[in-house]
């Protein structure tokens, strides 16, 4: 491809500055061409810091730039729907941070708007674009661990002292299930290739943090009595493992969602009484994500993870939040 796609960044969020923009800058297919903030000085400083050519003092101005091909949305969760729809109406392709929306209904509206405008909409689960997940799926399909009996996953960290953080604003889509629980939920659906039939979640809500779920433990029931057990949290030690348990072996991913180095991307296969390390080449998952999106846009090919998948993931998240608040098992209709 001779011409790189030009990306506009809608906001100066930490994930954009720390990971997504550097990933774009490593890409041969994409470039970070502009950034916008409601604080014009903040946009200018971020642009200078990250060597982005253009800074705008409003989101509207960025959407009006005819040179921009793709909009990346790292805004707080409650703003995803509005700005994804406005970006679609402006004729821009969209990469929106996870979770795509606050509810399944909102996600459906966003997908409908993108379809109507004829633009691509992708949810930013970057981990799925790392080739090791295809390796894991291939191991499962080959029978390397026998029949899958269950999946166990977790994603936790601790920044509870930062009480002003957007993660602790209930109306803004704060809480651990939205922020990190969505990862093991997404991964189980990806690896099993199925949707859960029921969910049960127990959560710890904190009055000091606007009563969002600070920790949650959950059970997702899939067809054939296979389950995902997961926990997520924002006031416990950092970890992000995933384990696929089979009748004859185990696939262990010590760092399942965050892969800052070659070592952290390692997969282990436990089978036949041995623990084998599966070689995984280092890949910047953010670059891989952007490149897949670029190829889909320029070549007209389907994304491996269509926007409709985000609707299904939000459907499960809705059920998890309902279960946690009402302390009950929630059955999902087919």
From TrEMBL:
Residues 133-252 form the GFO/IDH/MocA-like oxidoreductase domain. InterPro entries: Gfo/Idh/MocA-like_OxRdtase_N (IPR000683), Gfo/Idh/MocA_domain (IPR050984), GFO_IDH_MocA-like_dom (IPR055170), NAD(P)-bd_dom_sf (IPR036291). Keywords: Oxidoreductase. SUPFAM superfamilies: Glyceraldehyde-3-phosphate dehydrogenase-like, C-terminal domain, NAD(P)-binding Rossmann-fold domains. GO terms for molecular function: nucleotide binding; oxidoreductase activity. Belongs to the Gfo/Idh/MocA family. The gene is socC. This is Deoxyfructose oxidoreductase. The keyword Hydrolase does not apply. Transmembrane segments: none annotated. Residues 5-123 form the Gfo/Idh/MocA-like oxidoreductase N-terminal domain. It comes from Paenibacillus radicis (ex Gao et al. 2016).
